[in-house]
Amino acid sequence: MPHLDIERRRAYGRAWITRNKEKARDAMRRWRSRHREDDRSDKRDYYARNRDRVKAAVLAYRRRNPEIVRVVRTLRRARELAAQGYYSLAEWLALLERYGHRCCYCGAVGKLEPDHRVPLSRGGSNWISNIIPACRRCNTRKRTAPETEYRARLAAEERRGGADCDFSRVLIM
């Protein structure tokens, strides 16, 4: 033990962690895996003591990183449905660039969310090749229809003159 004084010991430990980040990170992973219940209990206690601070930090992170939050939510849903595939935030951002940050159905600019060409509920995968950017309105209207069925429905609405969207900029890739 380097120091009997608790404050000096803590300072020594912090300095060691600063110098040995990878070793410290690996050691904490090992400790958490061996002491899962203790770790969860510590986190619950911390949250109970600092509820407002934790909620504010999480909210601030979500506001600063809406794209990450959207992708994480979609990936979690895919995991829950046991869908095959995974895409990264970098792949999602590249896809947005490819579509010019526009909804692939109506061409709207604004907040876009990942939409599955073949929905997960119909056996679609979660690979980036099955993902296209869509605005909330189009993604909600599409529901569980595959992309081809939804595009056919949009074209029929446009022919009848009842289309709500401007389909002159619709992107088909």
Give the SSE string.
HHHHHHEEHH
Cα-atom radius of gyration: 24 Å
Strand order of the largest sheet: 1-2
In terms of per-residue confidence, which ranges show pLDDT below 50 for 5 or more consecutive residues? none
Number of helices: 8
Question: Largest beta sheet, briefly?
Answer: 2 strands, antiparallel
CATH topology label of the largest domain: DNA Binding (I), subunit A
Share of residues in strands: 5-15%
CATH class of the largest domain: Mainly Alpha
CATH architecture of the largest domain: Orthogonal Bundle
Number of domains: 2
Mean pLDDT metric = 89
Taken from the alpha-carbon principal axes, the silhouette is elongated
Counted beta strands: 2
Helical content, roughly?
Answer: 55-70%
Task: Report how far the terminal alpha carbons are from each other.
Answer: 64 Å
Structural class label: mainly alpha
Helix-strand blueprint:
Elements: H1 6-19, H2 21-34, H3 36-49, H4 51-64, H5 66-80, H6 89-98, E1 112-116, E2 131-135, H7 136-142, H8 147-160
Antiparallel strand pairs: 1-2
